[in-house]
Write the structure tokens for this entry.
Amino acid sequence: MFSAGAGPYYTYDRHEINNKNDFAGVISLQINYQLVRHLSTNFRFNRVVSFNDKDQDMFMAGIAWRF
């Protein structure tokens, strides 16, 4: 299964002299693969998009067991 999403969020940077309050966006892509009936693996990529030079990429991988 493949899923994706995007949306805005509010940010506050206590170390920033100007523009402490701002808005940024996040884009998420996720791939989920069912190994057996109750066991699956997943991989997620998140990209935080800001209007300055502080963009960030986050990767997460995991194994999930459905109860």
